[in-house]
């Protein structure tokens, strides 16, 4: 899970955009986080998820879960709360 959070942070930092303009890839990566929490991935699969390879993990999560965009957006809120990112005014 830590690898996913690190990758999410890297995507966020590299985007140079306001957090609220969340790109589809970031939402999908949060979907991977949810899948991990639901134990849909094992540690080895997470370890392999770095840089360009994270897309393969996203494909795997799509194949294995019924995660919706609504679930992913809820994960965005949870991530913001966890890291004390202020809500949009």
Question: How would you portray this structure in words?
Answer:
By secondary structure, the protein is mainly alpha-helical. The protein has one domain (2-82). Helices cover 65% and strands 0% of the residues. It contains 5 helices and no strands. Helix 1 (2-15) packs antiparallel against helix 2 (24-37) and helix 2 crosses helix 4 (54-64). The chain is globular, with a radius of gyration of 12 Å. It starts with a helix and ends in a 7-residue tail after the last helix. The model is unreliable at 47-53 (pLDDT under 50).
What features would you highlight for this structure?
89 residues; mainly alpha; globular
What would a concise description of this structure say?
By secondary structure, the protein is mostly helical. 65% of the residues lie in helices and 0% in strands.
Tell me the layout of helices and strands:
Blueprint: H1 2-15, H2 24-37, H3 43-47, H4 54-64, H5 69-82
